[in-house]
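Progress report, Aim 2. The chain analyzed during this reporting quarter is listed below.
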Amino acid sequence: MAVKQISVQLENIPGQLLMLFNILEREEITTKAVSAASTAERSVIRLVVNDPEKASAILTSYNFVHETTPVLAAEVPLHPGGMNAILKRLAQEEVNILYIYTTINRIGAETIVILGVDDIDKAREILRQNWIHLITDEIYSL
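Predicted C-alpha cells for the chain:
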C-alpha cells in the first residue's frame, strides 16, 4: 500500500504557504510530511497528511491547483549507511528516485522518508524484499 501525497501549486509570493496551512489547520488536517520547491513564479508544496481525501476536497473547495499521487514512506534503518539500504537497492534495480523528503514527526525511533519514484510497484517490492519497513496511509491517519 502506498501513501497518498498531495502536491499543491502556490503562487511564489509571501503568505501563500501560511494561507494553505491555516486552511488545513482550520479543517483539522494534520501534516505528517512536507516539502517545498519553487521557481520564480510558482511553488510546489508536497504534503502527506492524516486524511488525504478530506484535504483534497478542501483544497478543491478553495480552488487550489493540486493533485494526489502515490508515494512510498519507508523507515530508514538505524545504523551507519541506513539510507544506502534504501538507495543502493533501488539504484541497482534501476528505479529512479524523483524526489525524497523526510517526515515532520516520527512514528517510532526511525526517520521516515517519503520517496517519489518512477515505478512505485517495483520500488515497493524491492524494499520489502530487503526488509525495509513501509508505512501505510492507515498509520498516517492516526
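The longest strand covers residues 65-75. The chain has five helices and seven strands. These observations will guide the mutagenesis work planned for the next reporting period.
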